[in-house]
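User: Please fill in residues for this 170-position structure.
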């Protein structure tokens, strides 16, 4: 009997809008870590799962609370921060600086920059990738002799469903 019934399926769709099953993405994270000689330990996996389940940028202290419910074993905030640092070092998670919160990266199997559209009404975020923006940042960085180390683009605004709800309420 197979230990893990969910097989990772690396995404091959260049126009993907990120519609992936969370289970599959967590399984993929495990196999990426293996291939890189890193380990997706139980706690790392649990935090990644919580971020996928949350569906919106989630703060470290929210994760501490969610872990308490999920595992009935309290995990100290520094441990959660260390785990998030690991997940970010593996490009499995991105930090949304404007929210001081974390989201899972939809396509960790690709070396892409993350472009996040964050809704200021409901707090959800949608991640897209666009090679044109990556190229633009690289070109502009080269012009000013700058070497970017972390490239996450955050856009604030109102999502489709909140806009629809707003229009219906008028
Ligand atoms: Zn995809
Ligand atoms: Zn990403
Ligand atoms: Zn919204």
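Assistant: Residues filled in for all 170 positions:
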């Amino acid at each position: 009997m197979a230990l893990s019934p969910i097989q990772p399926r690396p995404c091959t769709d260049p126009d993907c809008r990120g519609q992936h099953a969370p289970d599959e993405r967590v399984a993929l994270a495990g196999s990426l870590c293996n291939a890189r000689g890193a380990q997706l330990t139980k706690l790392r996996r649990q935090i990644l799962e919580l971020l996928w389940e949350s569906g919106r940028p989630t703060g470290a202290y929210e994760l501490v609370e969610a872990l308490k419910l999920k595992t009935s074993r309290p995990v100290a905030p520094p441990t959660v921060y260390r785990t998030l640092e690991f997940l970010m070092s593996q490009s499995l998670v991105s930090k949304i600086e404007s929210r001081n919160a974390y989201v899972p990266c939809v396509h960790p199997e690709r070396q892409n920059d993350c472009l996040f559209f964050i809704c200021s009404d409901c707090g959800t975020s949608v991640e897209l990738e666009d090679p044109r923006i990556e190229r633009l940042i690289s070109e502009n960085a080269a012009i000013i002799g700058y070497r970017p180390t972390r490239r996450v683009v955050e856009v604030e605004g109102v999502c489709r469903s909140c806009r629809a709800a707003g229009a219906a309420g008028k």
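For context: The mean pLDDT is 90.
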